[in-house]
Design a protein that fits this description.
The protein is an alpha+beta fold. It has helices spanning 2-48, 56-72, 75-88, 94-109, 141-145, 184-192; strands at residues 118-123, 130-138, 153-159, 167-173, 178-179.
């Protein structure tokens, strides 16, 4: 009887926990985003109108992001963005943090600019063991000239788990690479789950 109760408990936990955590994170993100502008707007509305609208801060935040997006997709907007970035890259703290944050944002949101072209497999760290990697580019002629042999070389990013944004860059002979039809998104899920979520 006790073993069955334990089985039911863990089965229920496995069914309930992912759903509950997903809902909690969703509500937390919504609340956090709403609070950024809401903490300034809500008191003003309550003071002058006697009420406030829940979620108004989130809506205004989305509108601001869309307006910024519209501006930076224009020529002068891009120039302004580049000028601001140059200023940030000269500041002591921001020059270390900003490039990393920008890379993360590019990875998740700028799908058209995604640097990872193809998901590949290659033997690492020894023969008979395979690692997932992302083909980023073919190696330059200068790199090829410094390596003995005539094999074409490729630049491979080997991600670490569970954070696929960190890892190692390797130069691998093309003949040793296995090209797959797995998408970048599927590979990222595989890596972040530690191999639990297999590519379909």
């Amino acid at each position: 009887m006790l073993s069955k109760l334990r089985k039911y408990f863990f089965s229920g936990l496995l069914a309930f926990l992912p759903l509950a955590l997903s809902v909690f994170l969703f509500l937390w993100v919504i609340g956090f985003a709403d609070g950024l502008l809401g903490k300034y707007i809500d008191p003003l509305m309550k003071k002058h109108l006697g009420f406030y609208v829940p979620g108004l801060g989130l809506i205004l935040g989305l509108v601001c992001i869309i307006i910024i997006g519209f501006i930076v997709t224009r020529y002068f907007g891009r120039k302004i963005q580049e000028a601001i970035e140059k200023i940030f890259l000269r500041l002591p703290f921001f020059k270390q943090v900003y490039p990393a944050v920008k890379e993360i944002a590019d990875f998740f949101f700028a799908r058209g600019k995604l640097k990872f072209k193809t998901v590949v497999l290659f033997e690492y760290p020894r023969k008979g063991i395979y690692a997932f990697g992302f083909l980023t580019n073919t190696s330059s002629q200068r790199i090829n000239d410094n390596v003995k042999g005539k094999d074409e070389l490729c630049n491979i990013f080997l991600p670490s788990a569970p954070g696929p944004l960190t890892g190692f860059v390797m130069v691998v002979p093309k003949k040793d690479i296995i090209f797959t039809d797995i998408t970048v998104e599927e590979a990222v899920r595989f890596i972040m789950s530690g191999g639990v979520v297999n590519p379909q």
